[in-house]
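We modelled the chain as a single entity of 348 amino acids. Its sequence is:
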Amino acid sequence: MRAQPTEEFSVVICVYTEERWEDILAAVSSVHAQSRPAAETLLVVDHNPALRERLEKEFKDADDTRPVRVLANAGPRGLSAGRNTGIAAARGSLVAFLDDDAVAERDWLHHFAAGYADPRVMAVGGRTMPAWASGGRPDWFPEEFDWVVGCTYKGIPPGKVRVRNVLGGNASFRRSAFDAAGGFATGIGRDGDKRPLGCEETELCIRLGRALPDAVLLIDDRAVIHHKVPAVRERFGYFRTRAYAEGLSKALVARSVGAGKGLESERRYTTRVLPGGVGRGLRDAVLGRRGGAGRAGAIVTGVAAAAGGYVLGSVRARRGGGSFTPPPIAPLTHGAGGESEGREGAHA
């Protein structure tokens, strides 16, 4: 039987490869350093027994005041099912998500918690800053497309603002939100090193708004994490591929929730934010500033790639392809042993 949740945070970190071992440890350490302590950290391993065993050994003697539980992804391979496994196992009434290659600033959970003073608030997201492998942003890379590397992009209003959806790598939800709307949809979003799809958090948040019409979703840009951007993601080829994959994902979301709601924020982004970015890039090029023409060209290319992906995704959707399922969240079994029984439940 599921333990009665407390008004505390369970932090879920989904992991899939030993290549990110040091990043995983850094992510966990940043959770342990929070000014508002988390009740627990859940490491959900995506179908990688060797990594799971290594993590179990690493954290088997974890301090009881900073518990770490290691779980196997209970669903199909991919980030959505991993998050759902973490949600089901969470003991806190607030569930926060942190990417496995990111570190949270000290007051991350503190700022999340402040948002939940209003009982209508069902989700609070934060600001994700890129940590470029090369030491700095490539000259050609436009801030308007920082979502390509999983970061907060130019065009999201600053401060503490109401939004349609939070961004999954730096977000938190009331546990009750998943009881009302179900979990993250499988068949959409990341799956290890396959094509870099996304939008699973967008689809969930729109579904949540329909299930709970009075729900409020916020982004508080004081809740900051720093997300690593490896060298391969600083390349133009990845930029183009990720933009194309985003178009495919948006087509799935539009199929699920309708183009009106599914593309509501994107219309403002493409008609206001991106033209401004192109204009600034061209102005910088005329003034002889580095990267101006490249940024303008990247924005145009990114829009074209995303549009192409959306068209193809829409065609596939009409033909019945690319389906996905928003599952209910079934709690894992917790016993006195906690960690071991949680792992058994994750395999079920």
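As a brief sanity check on the tokenised model: Confidence is low (pLDDT under 50) at residues 1-5, 333-348. The chain is about 40% helix and 20% strand.
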